[in-house]
Amino acid sequence: MESYHIEEHLHPIYTRHPECRRRPLIGITANHELTDATLRDKYYELVAEAGGTPVIIPPVPDADIIMSTLQSIDALLLTGGADINPLWSGEQPLPSLGHVNGRRDLAELLTVRLAYNRQIPMLGICRGIQTLATALGGHVAQDIASATGVLKHSQDADRDVTTHTVTLTDGSVLASIFGGYGRQIAVNSFHHQAVDACGPQLRVTATAPDGTIEGVESACHKPVLGVQWHPEWLGADGLPLFRWLVDEAALFARAKAFHRSHVTLDSHCDTPMFFPKGIDFGTRDSHILVDLHKMDDGLQAAVTMVAYLEQPKDGKTFSQIAPLPVSGPRAYADLIFDKIQAIADAHPQHLALARTPSELEANRLAGKHTIMLGIENGQAIEHSIDNLRHFADRGIVYMTLCHNGDNDICDSARGTATWGGVSPFGTEVIRAMNELGVMVDLSHGAEKSFYDAVEMSSQPIVCSHSSCRALCDHPRNLTDDQMRLLARTGGVMQVTAYHGFLRLDGEASILNFLAHLDHAVSVMGVEHVGIGTDFDGDGGVPGLADSSELLNLTRHLMRRRYNDHDLQLIWGGNWLRLMKQVQENRL
User: Fold this and answer.
1) What is the spatial distance between Cα 71 and Cα 553, in angstroms, rounded to a whole number?
2) Extended strands (E) in 403-540
3) What single DSSP character describes residue 542?
4) C-alpha distance from residue 409 to each of 268, 348, 418, 461, 582 (Å)
5) Mapping DSSP to helix (H, G, I), strand (E, B) and coil, where does residue 425 land?
6) What is the pLDDT of residues 387-413, one digit of tens each?
7) CA-CA distance, 574 to 528, in Å (whole number)?
8) pLDDT tens string 497-514
9) CA angle centred on 343, ends 286 and 340, rounded to 5°
């Protein structure tokens, strides 16, 4: 019998500790009818049954309210409802267009785009799949009857009755969710609009017999899924979709918690290459992969920005090919560092430079992102140890000895073996870097240069953005023997997201990046592996395309059963440990 004594209900809560066993917070978009925000009870009942905490999101198109909501939730459920206004696709209404719910459109389209930026798991149902497509660059047909004319997609049967089948794409998330039911499942159907083009961010994963798109998922290995049918009415048969969403929400919550409590450092980005084009680091600038907005979205603590200097071809000087007017390589690197300092000065509440691991950690605790400085190509020192000392005093944490072409320090992986490894001057440079507390970086170095540097350096060396030759036979990648020696001598390899170093036969994705990272860990041990994306230097692949998607990378690493200790090492612990060791050696 129902008890109406509040203390009896409070007793089991008060006698356990902690009082709350946290369940992932699932935001559910509300419908709007006349003067009411409404929601079918089936949505929140199945969220609760799947282990989530349902929270209703009213359709308020206010950016601050939407973003404040997204900061709190762990996943987003986009519910069914009326048609989407065709004006959002630049179209005029057809006679067959149904009721348009203008109160929902802008609020939900903004919500989807902002949630997508933040890697928030999403499940769209009926109108929800259409909202996903509209917001992410796809297209919704105003009415599918004239296009298909085969199936009745707006059934008269009760909502819990299935009336047609859909075919699931092999290897898709939907197929894995409904694996026990085979490649075809029976669904209900209440719509006359449908997605007819997914756009670049989604791919088709379920179709009706007449070809109508019934399911989509992320094309970039993100937790985004949409279905055209109404699983909330199908009881136990619909529950697996809600369990998928709640499971992804729990994983996302873990990833967020990790990023908020640990340093997450990318050891190499080339964003300064875009300074001559007038980019704005304080906006979500579509020209660059690393900016304040994307670092916020990816909960990224720190990045090493490098002054990249192209190696001149024979007969050319650096000043002739420099993207900004300068007298020489040293002046160019100084100019880049001045511009980085200006960016930090323009955003003092959110961004700061750091030279040491302790300064980086202080910035993190103060709620600031960190930029560290590096040089990519030792021609910046203009054959002068005094210039190396100058850049050490400016705060560089590493110098990549060469780039694509031999220089006066060493042979390049893309060079002509000018020196047969490290040059006599390069020997002086490496010893001076040891004395000055600057890490020696052999990404871009020839194999012989690598082995020479390991032997010459009194400190372990690093490879700030390299991948595995065993998986992609490119001269820029490290062989297993190089990797084993690097680990044996205490060095660190930072796996890069440059597609050409991940695979040679087709487009790479985050899955290829993960395969290289897994291989590096298996060869070297987790204590010697990290992440150096090469963003804005042609780095970036689907699923790991910019700084906002670093959170998606952590989600995948957790899926691969890397624990928090492993993640702490990979996400900067190894790199910063070695940086501290090298800096403490400064004479």
Assistant:
1) 19
2) 439-441, 462-466, 492-495, 529-531
3) T
4) 21, 37, 10, 15, 20
5) helix
6) 999 999 999 999 999 999 999 999 999
7) 6
8) 999 999 999 899 999 999
9) 100
